[in-house]
């Protein structure tokens, strides 16, 4: 008999996809000339490298916000190499896993401070931060893929089907 899928299993799969898709996108971008990463198309955040840097930096801020209700204003990094961005992902994977462990045990309590300009006032903000991390990652990975397609470059498959077929192997 197969085991039952729990809501915790589903949430973990969503974060594993989130990290896999970002890592897969970095791997794909590593095959392009560095100057190509500086290109952008209208309607996206900015250049591919700045968008990726923003995505990973924001993910780090969501992780920090789970622990610290008051953070200094965020400033996006520019000029960060793909290798540096890739090197940050194992730490993100570990930290998301730890937070999900705490959530399962009923020990996670993330609070967002009142009057924060970048977040709405809310109590028990774990759900909001996790939802935003997943949405934000998908949004910006899609922008990078749209840029790749508009520039005539190959676009990687980063959807849930691809993750399930290849990323979980």
| Order of helical and strand elements | HHHHH
The rounded Rg comes to 17 Å
Q: How far is the first residue's CA from the last residue's CA? A: 22 Å
CATH topology assignment: Four Helix Bundle (Hemerythrin (Met), subunit A)
Unreliable stretches (pLDDT < 50, length at least 5) are none
Strand content: under 5%
Largest sheet: none
Number of domains: 1
3D shape: globular
Instruction: Report the helical percentage.
Output: 55-70%
What top-tier CATH class fits best?
Mainly Alpha
What's the CATH H-level homologous superfamily?
dinb family like domain
What this model shows, in words?
This protein is mostly helical and 169 residues long. The protein has a single domain, classed as Up-down Bundle (Four Helix Bundle (Hemerythrin (Met), subunit A)). The protein is built from 5 helices and no strands. It has helices spanning 7-29, 48-67, 82-105, 126-150, 160-167. α1 packs antiparallel against α3 and α2 (48-67) packs antiparallel against α4 (126-150). The longest helix has 25 residues, at 126-150.
In short:
By secondary structure, this protein is mainly alpha-helical.
How are the SSEs placed, and which strands pair?
Layout: H1 7-29, H2 48-67, H3 82-105, H4 126-150, H5 160-167
